[in-house]
Structures are given as structure tokens and as C-alpha cells.
């Protein structure tokens, strides 16, 4: 058949998780926790089901959850979104992102992505008939290059997708960088899709710079987040989008026909769980400790050069001192021969650009991280 996505195969996450299972490797590849969520959250799901919350919820999500999301955004980022018209519950961030893209990108529109970027963005733009404009983050530091972004803007630019904290590099945009983006877009009609799924994982006292904090960005932005990341339940596939009412109206037109609604009992449980005692406030310290444990072990036991993990649950390392293999070959070799799975950064670039960097996920039990470090010490 004539394929709509000729460049697309199976995602790197599926490939590496399958290989890791086959080889009995410690899986630090695909980003998901190997520990349980709070048992209270499970009780809330069971209670919601037992109470009969098992039929279709309202199309944009149950009001209690939208209220809780709006309250959280206002408390954290100081911007008020209407739960009625500006917030929609989605089937994870993945569905939120493709829905926002389908809602705004018309055939021939240009959409700027900053590479390396999460692997769903480019196929999503392709499916909308948009033209992908790839702008590299600065090699080595993975910071945004505003001269390059400015040079990529044209009258056909419809949107830019940003992601902070960043998957895969683990950088976190600063307030000054957000202001630079705000200033750069001020004279344009460009929309922003702001992927903030790691909003609660920012380390060393830094703060998450949501587009919600910047009026000039918020007015043109779809904010995307994911309960999977925040509450250690990636398999639930529940997330949300916040956007000004006119943007959200377009979003919902697509949402109602690609998923219509998101599972009801999880929404009730999350609404119940979110109001107090705000468990996401503990996440920075929780993950910073894991980052430090893993990074200290890597520094002590391996010759990898560590990149700074400022946020997210990823630690990137430069493999140059350890191997001459390409990143992609190295990750396959590491899984098969050493028994630890990682993700090559080349998977986040259109042309497979090899920066000699691979990504480990440290959202794992300490014993899992220590087992991986024992194996990596053999390198
Ligand atoms: N964006 C980024 C940057 C991610 O890392 C992920 C999770 N892998 C997603 C979106 C998708 O999130 P969800 O699992 O909620 O669909
Ligand atoms: N977001 C996770 C990662 O980057 C998992 C993505 C997926 O499995 N599609 O590893």
C-alpha cells in the first residue's frame, strides 16, 4: 500500500523494551517507573468504579478534575484557566499533542521542532500535512539557539513545539530563554505547543518555566501535561491540555472525534487525589535523590562523561571514552552484552544525527539502579 508515513518504523521505546525483556537486561531505556504509585490512588480508582463511575464522562473531562487542574495551574504558575472552556482531559500527552497539531496545522503550514525532540512530533505534523522545519538545539549543551529559531520563522510558520524539562537531554529552559521566545514570537501569529509533561521534575532549586507564566506565550499556547509522569502511572494514559478558549474550542473539535472522552474512573480518582496533599510537590526531591545516586555511581564506576540532568527523569552520557560504536549500535550492544538498556539520542533526530550521547531513565527503584551500575562497571 502507499504509506502515509514512509520514514516511520517501530518506535525506539518498543524496540529497546522488547530487546531488554528478551535479554533479561535492566531496562533503563523506555521512560517509566518500575515502582508502584501511591496505594491511596489505587483505592480512589476502586472507589470510583464501585461508586458507578463507569460510563462516558463529559467530552472535555469530568468537571472536578478540570477544576483541580485549573486550581493547580493557578497556584503554581499564576495564570487562571477556565475549567469550563480552557481545559480538556486527554488520553495521555501523546493524544494531546497530536490533537493540538491536527486542530491547528493545515496542509503546507510549517511547524518548527527543536531537535532532538520527542519522537511523536514529526509523524504527527506529517499526518496533518504540515511541513516539518527542524532547528537543532545547540550540540553538546542542548540549549535553544534563538538565532536559528528566528531564521526558521517564515510567513508560513504556524506553530513551534517546545519541551521543558526536555526529553531526551534533561535540560530545563530558564526564565531568560522563555522571555527570548516570547519576544521573538511577539510580532507573529505563531502558536506554541508546550510539552510540559516533566513539569514537576526540576532539580537543584530551579523552577519550571511554564508558558503559563508568560502572558505573551500563554495567549498563543497549548500546554500539555501528563498524569502518567506526575503520579507514576504511565499506563493509565491520562493527561490534559490547557489553552485560551478560542484555541481550546478548535482543540475540542478534533478531540471529540479522535477519542471523544477519557476513561471515567481514573478521572475521578485523579480529581480526588490531586486536591491534597499535592503529592507532586515532593517529586523534585524524590527524583533528584535518584539522579544523584545514579550519577554518582556512573561517575565512580564508568568512563562515561555525564551531561547535567536539570530536570525530567533522564540522565544522558557521552559514550566517546567508552566505545567507538555509533550511539544506536552501542545501545543494542549494551543491552545484549552488558545487560543494560538505554536509548540512543539519534532516535530523536530526523537524520539519526550521532552526538555520541545515550539516555538512561532513572525513574527506577534504587535496587534497579544499583543493579544497572554493577553491570555498567564492567565496561
Ligand atoms: N512528551 C514527552 C516529552 C514524553 O516524554 C512523553 C512520554 N514518553 C510524552 C509526551 C507522552 O506522554 P503520555 O505517556 O502521557 O502520552
Ligand atoms: N516518554 C517515554 C520515553 O521517552 C516513553 C515513551 C513511549 O514509550 N512511547 O521514554
From TrEMBL:
The alphabetized UniProt keywords are: Aminotransferase, Pyridoxal phosphate, Transferase
The domain of life is Bacteria
Cross-referenced InterPro entries, in alphabetical order?
Aminotransferase_I/II_large (IPR004839), Kynurenine-oxoglutarate_AT (IPR051326), PyrdxlP-dep_Trfase (IPR015424), PyrdxlP-dep_Trfase_major (IPR015421), PyrdxlP-dep_Trfase_small (IPR015422)
CDD domains tied to this protein: AAT_like
Annotated GO molecular function terms are: kynurenine-oxoglutarate transaminase activity; pyridoxal phosphate binding
Q: Record's GO cellular component, any one?
A: cytoplasm
Cofactor(s) needed, names only, are: pyridoxal 5'-phosphate
Question: Is this entry keyworded Transport?
Answer: no
Question: Ranges for the Aminotransferase class I/classII large domain?
Answer: 24-376
Q: Look up keyword Transferase and say if it applies.
A: yes
What does the similarity note say?
A: Belongs to the class-I pyridoxal-phosphate-dependent aminotransferase family.
The molecule here is called: Pyridoxal phosphate-dependent aminotransferase
Amino acid at each position: 500500500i502507499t504509506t502515509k508515513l514512509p520514514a516511520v518504523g517501530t518506535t525506539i521505546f518498543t524496540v529497546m523494551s522488547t530487546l531488554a525483556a528478551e535479554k533479561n537486561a535492566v531496562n533503563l531505556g523506555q521512560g517509566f517507573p518500575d515502582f508502584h504509585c501511591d496505594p491511596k490512588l489505587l483505592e480512589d480508582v476502586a472507589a470510583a468504579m464501585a461508586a458507578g463511575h463507569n460510563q462516558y464522562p463529559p467530552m472535555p473531562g469530568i468537571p472536578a478534575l478540570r477544576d483541580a487542574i485549573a486550581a493547580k495551574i493557578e497556584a503554581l504558575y499564576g495564570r487562571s484557566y477556565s475549567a469550563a472552556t480552557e481545559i480538556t482531559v486527554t488520553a495521555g500527552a501523546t493524544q494531546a499533542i497530536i490533537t493540538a497539531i491536527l486542530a491547528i496545522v493545515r496542509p503546507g503550514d510549517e511547524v518548527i521542532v527543536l531537535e532532538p525532540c520527542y519522537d511523536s512530533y514529526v509523524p504527527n505534523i506529517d499526518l496533518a500535512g504540515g511541513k516539518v522545519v527542524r532547528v537543532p538545539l545547540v550540540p553538546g549543551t542542548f540549549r535553544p539557539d534563538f538565532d536559528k529559531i528566528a531564521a526558521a520563522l517564515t510567513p508560513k510558520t504556524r506553530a513551534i513545539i517546545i519541551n521543558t524539562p526536555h526529553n531526551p537531554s534533561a535540560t530545563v529552559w530558564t526564565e531568560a530563554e522563555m522571555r527570548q521566545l516570547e519576544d521573538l514570537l511577539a510580532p507573529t501569529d505563531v502558536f506554541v505547543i508546550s510539552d510540559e509533561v516533566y513539569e514537576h521534575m526540576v532539580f537543584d532549586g530551579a523552577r519550571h518555566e511554564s508558558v503559563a507564566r508568560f502572558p505573551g506565550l500563554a495567549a498563543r499556547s497549548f500546554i500539555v501535561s501528563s498524569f502518567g509522569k506526575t503520579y507514576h502511572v504511565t499506563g493509565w494514559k491520562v493527561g490534559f491540555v490547557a489553552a485560551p478558549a478560542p484555541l481550546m474550542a478548535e482543540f475540542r473539535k478534533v478531540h471529540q472525534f479522535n477519542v471523544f472522552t477519557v476513561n471515567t474512573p481514573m478521572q475521578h480518582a485523579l480529581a480526588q487525589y490531586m486536591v491534597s496533599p499535592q503529592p507532586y510537590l515532593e517529586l523534585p526531591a524524590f527524583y533528584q535523590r535518584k539522579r544523584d545516586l545514579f550519577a554518582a555511581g556512573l561517575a565512580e564506576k564508568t568512563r562515561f562523561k555525564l551531561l547535567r540532568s536539570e530536570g525530567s527523569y533522564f540522565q544522558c552520557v557521552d559514550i566517546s571514552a567508552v566505545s567507538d560504536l555509533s550511539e544506536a549500535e552501542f545501545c543494542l550492544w549494551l543491552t545484549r552484552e552488558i545487560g543494560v538498556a538505554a536509548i540512543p539520542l539519534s532516535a530523536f533526530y530526523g537524520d539519526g544525527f550521532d552526538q555520541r550521547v545515550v539516555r538512561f531513565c532513572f525513574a527506577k527503584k534504587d535496587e534497579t539502579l544499583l543493579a544497572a551500575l554493577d553491570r555498567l562497571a564492567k565496561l
